[in-house]
């Protein structure tokens, strides 16, 4: 681990020279001369950029990955399939990670360590090439070196024990944490349409903004969002943000593609250890997989989540969550739907693991369904869905307040 951190520190220092030259604007990637390919001794990665930028690199295990972080890069024109030229790499993801910074993640077919890394900058044109050479190592050696460097800008906040919530003013607005799925380096589902290329991360951010406005205008809710632009937010951080905000309700918004089962119509998911069906199980696995492919270090995930997974809190919260899910489906159905033929489902979604906040994941529709796709890109249909969610939240709040009043008596 120490050797890897020394290399990382050196890279920051070397790249800082490029920063000091006064380059401005985003560095653009040149797809034609960028790629990841096999070499005689292992594998190599070349990234051609319009100018030098600060960067760092490190490796992560389970599965083995090489992660490269840069001051923000414009990835326009770079295609995943074209970038991977060799059999040593199984997948690549790239995009915004946190505001101002980009990430490229290469999934390795087998453990390989960084042998050399160098950034070469043309002093006249500023054109830059980053070279990274990888060499095979044992799984044990790879695991010993793997791990994300500590960085307060990107690390999760320290876990906090769930405190008992005080009595809430029944007339005060509820704080709803809206969670637009995916973002940045993790695009989510994608579909081509005659109107253009549809990407889940963009669509859900747009819908979250539209829904947030509807909720605020009602006067019964205030709204915060786990992201307000196109950047990556890990599943754990989404939970942490809801707790930091003191959210009363957490709603994660998605429009996935799925091949298992009948995937069309609005569907609401709640947390459970056992998935209600194969399609739900596969969907939850894909969401976790998205975190992995985005270069998130999940080695301490269970410990961090445990701080907000108190059984006593969940015993009270789960019935409220189930009631919330039912109210949302009923309201969406009354608003004209369409809803799935099995609209209430459950699975082990990491983003729903908050013990003391009623939390649901809403698939507004599925991009894999032609009908749903047409609905999702229609602003009038989205406005109708937003009104349905508003009505569901209002109905749930009325019943929830009545139930709490009975408990107090």
- Tell the overall outline: elongated
Looking at this structure, what is the CATH superfamily of the largest domain? Zn-dependent exopeptidases
Determine the fraction of residues in helical runs and give it as a percent range. 25-40%
Q: Which strand order do you get reading across the main beta sheet?
A: 14-11-15-18-16-17
Unreliable runs, pLDDT <50, ≥5 residues?
A: 1-24, 303-310
Query: What is the CATH C level class of the largest domain, in words?
Result: Alpha Beta
Mean pLDDT: 86
Give structural notes.
The chain has 409 residues and is of the alpha/beta class. The chain has two domains: 2-145, Immunoglobulin-like (Sandwich), CATH 2.60.40.3500; 174-408, 3-Layer(aba) Sandwich (Aminopeptidase), CATH 3.40.630. 35% of the residues lie in helices and 27% in strands. It has helices at residues 2-20, 80-83, 139-145, 200-217, 235-245, 278-293, 301-306, 311-334, 370-376, 379-408; strands spanning 27-28, 35-38, 43-49, 55-60, 65-71, 73-74, 89-98, 101-108, 112-121, 128-136, 174-180, 190-193, 196-199, 221-225, 249-254, 266-271, 339-347, 359-363. The strands form five sheets. Strands 14-11-15-18-16-17 form a six-stranded mixed β-sheet, sandwiched between helices. Strands 2-3-10-9 form a four-stranded antiparallel β-sheet. It has a four-stranded antiparallel β-sheet with strand order 4-5-8-7. β7 and β8 (101-108) form a beta hairpin. The longest helix is centred in the last third of the chain and has 30 residues, at 379-408. The protein is elongated and about 70 Å long. The model is unreliable at 1-24 and 303-310 (pLDDT under 50).
């Amino acid at each position: 681990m120490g050797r890897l951190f020394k290399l990382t520190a050196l890279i920051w220092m070397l790249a800082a020279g490029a920063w000091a030259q006064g380059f401005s604007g985003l560095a653009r990637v040149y797809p034609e001369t960028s790629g990841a390919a096999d070499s005689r001794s292992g594998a190599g990665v070349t990234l051609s950029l319009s100018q030098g930028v600060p960067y760092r690199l490190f490796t992560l295990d389970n599965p083995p990955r090489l992660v490269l972080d840069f001051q923000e890069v414009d990835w326009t024109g770079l295609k995943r399939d074209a970038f991977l030229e060799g059999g040593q790499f199984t997948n690549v993801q790239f995009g915004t990670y946190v505001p101002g910074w980009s990430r490229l993640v290469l999934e390795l077919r087998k453990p390989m360590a960084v042998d050399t890394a160098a950034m070469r900058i043309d002093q006249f044109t500023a054109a830059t090439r980053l070279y990274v050479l990888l060499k095979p190592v044992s799984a044990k050696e790879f695991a010993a070196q793997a791990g994300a460097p500590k960085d307060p800008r990107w690390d999760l906040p320290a876990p906090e024990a769930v405190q008992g919530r005080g009595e809430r003013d029944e007339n005060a607005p509820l704080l709803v944490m809206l969670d637009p799925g995916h973002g940045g380096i993790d695009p989510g589902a994608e579909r081509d349409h005659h109107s253009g290329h549809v990407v889940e991360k963009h669509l859900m951010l747009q819908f979250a903004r539209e829904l947030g406005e509807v909720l605020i205008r009602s006067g019964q809710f205030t709204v915060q969002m786990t992201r307000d632009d196109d950047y990556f937010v890990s599943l754990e951080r989404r939970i942490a943000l809801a707790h930091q905000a003191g959210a009363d309700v957490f709603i994660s918004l998605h429009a996935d593609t799925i091949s298992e089962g009948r995937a069309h119509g609005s569907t609401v998911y709640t947390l459970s250890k056992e998935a209600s069906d194969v399609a739900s199980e596969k969907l939850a696995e894909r969401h976790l997989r998205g975190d992995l492919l985005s270069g998130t270090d999940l080695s301490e995930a269970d410990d961090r989540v445990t701080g907000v997974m108190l059984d006593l809190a969940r015993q009270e919260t789960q019935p409220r969550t189930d009631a919330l899910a039912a109210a949302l489906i009923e309201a969406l159905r009354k608003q004209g739907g369409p809803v799935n033929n099995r609209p209430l489902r459950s699975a082990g979604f990491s983003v729903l693991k908050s013990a003391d906040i009623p939390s649901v994941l809403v698939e507004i529709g599925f991009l894999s369904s032609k009908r749903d796709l047409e609905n999702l890109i229609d602003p009038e249909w989205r406005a109708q869905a937003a009104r349905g969610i508003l009505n569901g939240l209002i109905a749930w709040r009325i019943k929830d307040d009545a139930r709490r009043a009975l408990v107090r008596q």
